[in-house]
Specification:
The chain is mostly helical. The chain is built from 1 helix and no strands. Helices cover 61% and strands 0% of the residues. It is rod-shaped. The relative contact order is 0.04.
């Protein structure tokens, strides 16, 4: 170990003149910190992707159920209209774009 006290090169106002050069431990800590931040960002992105998959797994069955109910109601109304002798026409209006 180093037995000498650290040398502080300061101005009379109390500011340091030059920052001390980074030690080998500082450089290693910097590399480890960058790697850890990369892992955190990757884990966050994976968590967001998993939440999106969970949301889709909840929303899609509701969507398919609502579409099935709407299809059955439409089929029933068309059947009643034909039984009563009404002319059934389905019109599709198309817009001029988005």
């Amino acid at each position: 170990m180093n037995d000498r006290p650290p040398l502080l090169d300061m101005t009379p106002q109390g500011d340091f003149r030059d920052p001390p050069p980074p030690s080998r431990a500082d450089r290693i800590a910097s590399v480890v910190l960058r790697a850890a931040l990369g892992v955190v960002v990757l884990a966050g992105l994976l968590a967001l992707a998993s939440l999106a998959i969970v949301a889709l797994s909840v929303i899609l069955p509701i969507l398919f159920g609502a579409a099935a109910v709407a299809g059955v109601i439409l089929w029933w109304r068309l059947r009643q209209a034909r039984r009563n002798g009404q002319d059934v026409r389905i019109m599709v209006f198309r817009g001029r774009g988005f």
